[in-house]
């Protein structure tokens, strides 16, 4: 794999917020956000919140997601698109082959423009901790 075929890593908060305005495809182990980025190439980012577990669990999930992105984005990723994987509760215990199949399916749905319904913005949140 040549470096030109790979992807660059999202690191700025603004890029993650922009990706949140794009297409959302939910799967049991993760949520994929895909948003066009106006010619900046194929980019990817990973988010795993503290709700998922302690630092060891979160880092393990991020390592698994990085491996999936490294393997699948060059072939299945969308050109000139930001891809963000958000870890979900059961994602770290999920079988790696299932995650791979789910990511390929999610990227296919994103390519076809078949995202999930947008989340309601007026939903009440619980008390802050």
TrEMBL record:
A GO biological-process term: tRNA 5'-leader removal
Keyword tRNA processing in annotation: yes
Catalytic activity: Endonucleolytic cleavage of RNA, removing 5'-extranucleotides from tRNA precursor
Domain of life: Bacteria
A matching Pfam family: Ribonuclease_P
EC number, as in UniProt: 3.1.26.5
Alphabetical list of Gene3D superfamilies matching this protein: 3.30.230.10
Keyword Hydrolase: yes
UniProt feature, compositional bias: Basic residues: 120-129
Similarity comment: family membership: Belongs to the RnpA family.
Known function: RNaseP catalyzes the removal of the 5'-leader sequence from pre-tRNA to produce the mature 5'-terminus. It can also cleave other RNA substrates such as 4.5S RNA. The protein component plays an auxiliary but essential role in vivo by binding to the 5'-leader sequence and broadening the substrate specificity of the ribozyme.
Name of the protein in its database record: Ribonuclease P protein component
Encoding gene per record: rnpA
